[in-house]
Amino acid sequence: MRIVLVGPPGAGKGTQAAFLAKNLSIPHISTGDLFRANISQNTELGQRAKAFMDAGDLVPDEITIGMAKDRMEQPDAANGFLLDGFPRNVSQAEALDAMLTDAGMKLDAVLDLEVEEDEVVKRIAGRRICRNDSAHVFHVSYAPPKTDGVCDTCGGELYQRGDDSEGTVRNRLEVYHTQTEPIIDYYKAQGLLRTISALGDVQDVTQRAMDALKK
């Protein structure tokens, strides 16, 4: 299967992508991984992307599209893939369509993880990270530490990352609404969109996604 996963920040796309890719035996291709791999391997696209990032500028669509194309042409993606974070706008969606058409392929479905804006803010703004180990993550509502502000695992100080503040989260949501949300209508017009609720346990959301794909 060839699937695109969309949804606002905090919808749980990364978590669901990992579960779905495993269940469907297809590679999970995320924009973040593409950038990290190209930059660490010092590819031409990685060098170009890093120059923009170092300058604090957005990486142009053509570079992101090039990275995605290279990755989708790898042998492990021959029988399908799950795209997470790409396409990010309608221009990228059109480029993806053109790439697949050229290769004699097409998308099977676009999964839209739906979650209310206030819930997104609550999820992200409530996160607390351990200063000693960023893998130790808590949440003031959903997974609070036994002692306020103290990591259960190592006793380190828990803090809120700057980009997890409510103001920053709402800004990220505004960017999502402006740039990425239009691809939902784009894929809806093609009959590819499958919208599911991203609320509840991770396993429940995964099951909803699998059920939607079976249809």
UniProtKB/TrEMBL annotation:
**What is its subcellular localisation?**
Cytoplasm
Residue ranges for the region (NMP) are 30-59
Q: What is its main location?
A: cytoplasm
The record's InterPro entries line, in alphabetical order, gives:
Adenyl_kin_sub, Adenylat/UMP-CMP_kin, Adenylat_kinase_CS, Adenylate_kinase_lid-dom, ADK_active_lid_dom_sf, P-loop_NTPase
Which part of the chain is the Adenylate kinase active site lid domain? 127-163
Report the Pfam families cross-referenced here.
ADK (PF00406), ADK_lid (PF05191)
Q: Which parts of the sequence bind AMP? A: T31, R36, D57, L58, V59, G85, F86, P87, R88, Q92, R161, R172
What is this enzyme's catalytic activity, as reactions? AMP + ATP = 2 ADP
Q: Which UniProt keywords apply?
A: ATP-binding, Cytoplasm, Kinase, Nucleotide biosynthesis, Nucleotide-binding, Transferase
Sum up the protein's function in the record's words: Catalyzes the reversible transfer of the terminal phosphate group between ATP and AMP. Plays an important role in cellular energy homeostasis and in adenine nucleotide metabolism.
Q: Which family does it belong to?
A: Belongs to the adenylate kinase family.
Subunit (UniProt): Monomer.
- Protein name stated in the entry: Adenylate kinase
Gene expressing this chain: adk
